[in-house]
Amino acid sequence: MCCWSKTRSAFSKVFSNISQAFKQAYITYTRQVLKTWQA
After folding, report:
1. Please, how many CA atoms are within 13 Å of residue 34, restricted to the half-sphere of its CB?
2. What confidence tens digit (pLDDT) does each residue in 1-39 have?
3. Alpha-carbon distance 39 to 3, whole Å?
4. Origin, by domain of life (predicted)?
5. C-alpha–C-alpha distance, residues 37 and 39, integer Å
6. Where are the beta strands (DSSP E) in the chain?
7. How many domains does the chain have?
8. Structural domain that includes position 36
């Protein structure tokens, strides 16, 4: 049981890192699109 909670916390940490990177990439992409449209 203790191993499961350890695995779960590690998984949630990885998941939050992935979502953070995805959010960052989305923001960058949106900025690029807006810049292209305004040009």
Report:
1. 6
2. 567 788 899 999 999 999 999 999 999 999 999 999 987
3. 54
4. Bacteria
5. 6
6. none
7. 1
8. 1-39
